[in-house]
Amino acid sequence: MSLTLTGVTLTYPDGGSRLTALDQVTLDVPRGSLTAVVGPSGSGKSSLLAVAATLVSPDAGTVTVDGTTTTGMTRGELTDLRRRKIGIVFQHPSLLPALSAREQLQVMAWIDGRSPARARARAMELLDAVGLAPEAERRPHQLSGGQRQRVNIARALMNDPTVLLVDEPTSALDHERGAAVVGLLTRLTRLQGTATVLVTHDRGHLTGADQIAEVHDGRLRSGTRRELRQACT
Ranges for the ABC transporter domain (predicted)? Predict the structure, then answer.
């Protein structure tokens, strides 16, 4: 498994008590597979993603990324793990206005200490993979919403992560463009061999998922679409 959450519990302060965001959550995501996380607003989807990204430490349980258990790691060690092993696609692309699509990706490689030539080659390879090689020199204002999201996805893959975490990538897109982005994520998961977690509110975009995890009140139930349907009957 490239991403494993085991018995994860996460609570937040709530007045004089604690609010449980995640309750004994266990999830395994193998490399080369896509797990879709669904559930109503406030159910714990974003908390699950934050814990998986090592941005928030759970109260209990363990997070293992590509064989490394994060319990007890320092802040600096976690930052280094995210840089090397985890790609994060945020809900809004937040691209730098002054940089071209190619340069958005090359910045990530520069942070990682790669040579300019290698960085440029990798950036162009990924832009080609997401269908944007012809737009490599365009800046964000010259790209459509769907194209900006594809740059966002390519940027998250720039440092060859083993885990890809995606937060509501279709929220600002119409259904057709949203379906295209999810289809792209599914294809790249197979191509790049990442363990991908996709948080989405749109159940119409689940056809390519290998596993579906439903979160309700911080508790998780996972399986294939057929298994979850049978469990509800």
Answer: 3-231
Q: Which residues of 26-60 are buried (b: 16+ CB within 10 A; e: fewer)?
A: ebbbebebbbbbbbeeebbbbbbbbbbbbebebee
Q: Comparing C-alpha atoms, which of 195, 194, 200 is closest to residue 173?
A: 200
Measured CA to CA, the distance from residue 64 to residue 181 in angstroms comes to 27
Asked if 177 and 146 count as a contact pair (C-beta separation under 8 A), the reply is: yes
What is the pTM for the complete model shown?
A: 0.89
Cα-based angle 30, 33, 37 (whole degrees, multiple of 5): 95
C-alpha distances out from residue 158 to 12, 58, 76, 91, 144, Å? 33, 28, 21, 18, 21
- Domains annotated for the chain, with CATH where assigned, are 3-92+162-231 (3.40.50.300)
What pLDDT band is residue 223 in, cutting at 50, 70 and 90? low
